[in-house]
């Protein structure tokens, strides 16, 4: 149920009162909040699985792998490192300022807003929360209205596990988010489209609120590994068709040479069958499109393409089979001939695009916005290095897809149009803390007198 817009300012000011009370600052309080978050998940796993099934037809295995266990790993990693991260550190002081001592103290920012999308409605809301709580902040969560069961579940659970009001939830869509964005926050984490990311950043600018924007785009894959064709194809289709392709870091399209296309297409067909059987519709492990609007958009993307695997769809079930198309024309980006090469696909359609060689693939990638992820399937170290050095993307993964999201110790985020800032593990904690230098220069020895006028002779150099 959407929160009434009139109630939203009080939700935020109440979160600020809790923050101002100092209740979240101590390390013990931070650890307790993280443990409450962990209990909220572990004690309600069947309810989370049911909500994700209802919203996205996400099977229990996939829900565990891509949502529940990712958040639990993040919380456990954070709890393990909390003492080390929060310990004040000595800071260096130049000789010119001696005698003096400096410490680096990490202080919480205040009230942090998290706005999440529908595709991983649990992970993308609760993963940033671990870092927010570790840094000693309070939080306001805005789940996606397009994953209503997950949104309702989190809205029901949060007050039970955070009775002290450290975490609060506002439910709703555009109207409620607009009202939320009119409030003052100390940081905003937004995951979603670039179009709404711009709205969020504009609203944040009014209060000079820093933002972390986790956006999307067309993440490319390069394939030239003939020796490991079947393994590569299996990893590619897993990365692409998990959650029915509705993954921000899913490979959007594959670049390869024309001579490799027939074998690759056959390998992709075999891999799809390996993972979801000959009728993926009947598989309990294959998802559905989130709503009819997205379904219609995706089906229209198939118009005028050469479908070589899958292609069947059923609006009543919002089912689209894992589909491979061979796309005409080498342009990918704003001037591409076909919308499947112009728009972020965000669904189970994988175009295979022919280029002459790796250098041309790099030109295709560099022709447009910097992607969130780049996947390279090549047994040549030279080729792998070429892609690393001559392209820019949120992350590069060789010989696999998606797995960097689960690497808690690595920063997760985009670059350029695919996002601003990064989080996960220590990078979350840094993002949601202010690193404050605290200096003390004892008055007993008045060496600062040398830096004060009247200056005589050459004067001091600081
Ligand atoms: P979206 O931008 O439509 O919505 C995201 C959130 O913004 C939702 O909570 C929604 O309620 C809110 N919102 C929507 N319109 C708004 C408006 N006009 N004003 C204020 N708030 C508004 O995104 P989506 O459709 O939920 O998700 C798909 C997009 O998210 C894709 O582009 C995908 O690549 C991206 N994504 C990125 C990541 C990442 O980690 N980088 C992860 C998942 C999805």
* CATH architecture designation of the largest domain: 3-Layer(aba) Sandwich
Question: What is the fold named in CATH at topology level of the largest domain?
Answer: Aldehyde Dehydrogenase, Chain A, domain 1
Give the overall average pLDDT: 95
Structural class: alpha/beta
Helix content: 25-40%
Strand content: 15-25%
Number of strands: 20
- Cα(first) to Cα(last) distance is 60 Å
Unreliable runs, pLDDT <50, ≥5 residues?
none
Number of helices: 14
GO molecular function, one term: aldehyde dehydrogenase (NAD+) activity
Domain Aldehyde dehydrogenase: 8-437
Keywords: NAD, Oxidoreductase
GO cellular component, one term: cytoplasm
């Amino acid at each position: 149920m959407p929160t009434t817009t009139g109630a939203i300012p009080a939700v935020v000011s109440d979160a600020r009162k809790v923050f101002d009370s100092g209740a979240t600052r101590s390390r013990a309080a931070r650890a307790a909040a993280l443990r409450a978050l962990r209990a909220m998940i572990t004690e309600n796993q069947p309810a989370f699985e049911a909500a994700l099934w209802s919203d996205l037809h996400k099977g229990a295995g996939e829900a565990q792998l891509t949502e529940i266990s990712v958040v639990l790993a993040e919380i456990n990693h954070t709890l393990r490192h909390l003492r080390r991260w929060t310990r004040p550190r000595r800071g260096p002081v130049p000789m010119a300022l001696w005698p003096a001592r400096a410490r680096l103290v990490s202080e919480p920012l205040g009230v942090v807003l998290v706005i999440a999308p529908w595709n991983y409605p649990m992970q993308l809301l609760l993963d940033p929360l671990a870092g927010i709580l570790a840094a000693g902040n309070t939080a306001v969560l805005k789940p996606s209205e397009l994953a209503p069961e997950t949104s309702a579940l989190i809205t029901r659970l949060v007050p039970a596990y955070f009775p002290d009001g450290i975490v609060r939830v506002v439910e709703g869509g555009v109207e409620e988010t607009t009202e939320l964005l009119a409030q003052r926050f100390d940081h905003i984490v937004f995951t979603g489209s670039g179009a709404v990311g711009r709205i969020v950043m504009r609203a944040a600018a009014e209060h000079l609120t820093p933002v972390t924007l986790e956006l999307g785009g067309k993440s490319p894959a390069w394939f030239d590994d003939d020796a490991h064709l079947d393994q590569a194809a299996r990893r590619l289709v897993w990365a692409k068709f998990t959650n029915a392709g509705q993954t921000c870091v899913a490979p959007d399209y594959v670049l390869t040479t024309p001579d490799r296309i027939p074998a690759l297409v056959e390998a992709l067909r075999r891999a799809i069958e390996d993972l979801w059987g000959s009728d993926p519709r009947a598989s309990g492990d294959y998802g559905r499109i989130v709503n009819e609007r997205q379904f219609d958009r995706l089906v229209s993307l198939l118009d005028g393409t050469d479908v070589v695997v899958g292609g069947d769809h059923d609006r009543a079930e919002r089912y689209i089979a894992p589909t491979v198309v061979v796309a005409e024309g080498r342009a990918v980006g704003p001037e591409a001939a076909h919308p499947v090469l112009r728009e972020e696909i965000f669904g189970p359609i994988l175009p295979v695009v022919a280029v002459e060689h790796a250098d041309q693939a790099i030109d295709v990638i560099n022709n447009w916005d910097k992607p969130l992820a780049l996947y390279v399937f090549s047994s040549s170290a030279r080729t792998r290095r070429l892609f690393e050095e001559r392209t820019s993307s949120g992350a590069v993964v060789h010989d696999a897809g998606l797995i960097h999201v689960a690497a808690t110790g690595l920063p997760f985020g985009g670059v350029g149009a695919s996002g601003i800032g990064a989080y996960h593990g220590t990078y979350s904690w840094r993002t949601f803390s202010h690193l404050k230098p605290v200096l003390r220069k004892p008055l007993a020895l008045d060496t600062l007198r040398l830096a004060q006028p009247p200056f005589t002779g050459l004067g001091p150099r600081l």
